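so the lab meeting is tmrw and i was supposed to have these ready like two days ago... anyway. pasting both below. for each one the top line is the aa sequence and the line under it is the structure tokens. i havent really looked at them closely yet so no promises
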Amino acid sequence: MIYVMGHKAPDTDSVIAAIAEAEFLRQKGIDAEPVIQGPVSPETQWVLDKFELDTPEIMTSVAGKEIVLVDTSEPSQLPDDINEAKITSIVDHHNLGGIKTAETLHITIRPFGATCTIIAGQFQEKDFGIPARLAGAMVCAILSDTVMFKSPTTEGKDRRTVEKLSIMAHVSPKELGMEMFRVKSNIDNETVQNLLARDTKDYECSGKKITVATLELVDIKPIKKRLPEIKAEMKKNHAGGRSIILLIVDIIKEGALMVSYTDNDKKIEKMFMGDWKDHEAYIPGIISRKRQVVPILNRHY
């Protein structure tokens, strides 16, 4: 059995990519099963329910198992015992992480907006069929990761893939995307801890660990009234030794409210120019953590 998994704090692309890659491997005659490293977000659960797909089982230890990685190759985003697993392949759309393997493996990394775009291409290359329900979920995954094509990570391949998958699934990408992002934007009943953990990734920049969390909302006004409790939680986390940046992305206005509690907030303020006050600033034009935030942190933090 080969287990297909994405990163910790799984987002929609990570979860659906694991399901899609497992289906692709099964069509190749390989016994494969998708797994996740933790609970799914409300958005992802909505996608799974809408297209009647089972939520993958949670797996946090992979020692002695054969693993296919999707949507990440960053060790900090993988199980602690990942070095005790046999990684057979990686399918990703991020920069190549620092993972090391004992054996050669298949690696497919493409600069697309979503991992599901790459996997859809794998199906096409082999002339394999994509089930309609899976095709619909893959549309959601691509729209989610590209922020409905507003992210600078978006490529023409992402748009063309969504067009093809939408026909297979008999869905309207625009209507589906807006419905999905309305679900993502519903934060009324979410705890501050859940909001900060919803879409978070850990990185190592200049030898220091830093967490970058993202909230993508149709309108950021409702969350502003919760900023005091969000900041209090971030301050508590930083006091415990954790550097954290939160990006609250306004999908419609295409900018982000950035909140920073790190070991060097003054440096963060210089890297991301804005009217900083009380650990926060609105930065116009920032939508993508992967393309617009993490590379700057890697170069200058």
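ok protien two:
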Amino acid sequence: MRKRRVRLSSAPRPQWAAKILELREELRLSQTAFGHKLRCSAMAVSRWERGTQEPPSHTYIEIGNLAGDPLCWYFWGRAGLRSEDVMRVLPGLQRRLRQSHTRDFEIVSAGSGNRKLKEKLRLVAIPLLEIVAASHGEKGDDTPSLQDAVIDSMIAAPIEWCPNPSCTSCLRVRGHSMAPTICDSYIVAVDSSQTNRANLDGKIVIAWEKDKGLTVSRFKRYGQTETLQPENPQYESVTLGHKNEKWKIVGRVLWWVGKAP
């Protein structure tokens, strides 16, 4: 009997497909049982997990409801929901999320010697996330909302630098399109509550798109035209027209730090 050859795809599985599979296995559900909870067939679940077909937005919302925090933010982000809108509806969710992410840390004084501060210093502990925003032309991490990202460490900053501490996170930058302002491997602080495009003209932002992932760029408006512009003239800008409505502003970059060469 002649054996039938099976051709395996060499393409890597998309992150959204891996996360759906991870969630189903954590819930210890078969594809049939998982699909039943989402009012979908086992065949549809199989296509999602193999990465051959992505779930529609309404199904992503239901998957997020099954996942709970913090993974829910990833699926809700894929559905196009903004974290600040969810926070307004479920304010207790943000409080639980921040508490679950809290780590023990110690503030160590440096450079002050025996000198005393004029007044008590107020610092904010900002989570440094295990995600990367890429420059133009590269692919960043596929994380549409910063709320679900894993925390790598913490960074202490003056409270004056963080107008919305509960919505502020730090992440690393990869690439050179924002040089010399923001260079490769710099760390940027991002306020995820500042996403209203009407208030972001000329500001550096973190944007997200399904195929490109997280991108760091400068948001500029020219009349009715909105663009993401690199600082480095060797890179091309992105026009956010009707064909690019899938781009989403994740937050505004407040400040950045980097090691000296």
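from a quick look at the 2nd one: Helices lie at 15-26, 31-37, 42-50, 57-67, 72-78, 83-89, 91-101. The domain at 15-95 is CATH 1.10.260.40 (434 Repressor (Amino-terminal Domain)). will dig more after coffe
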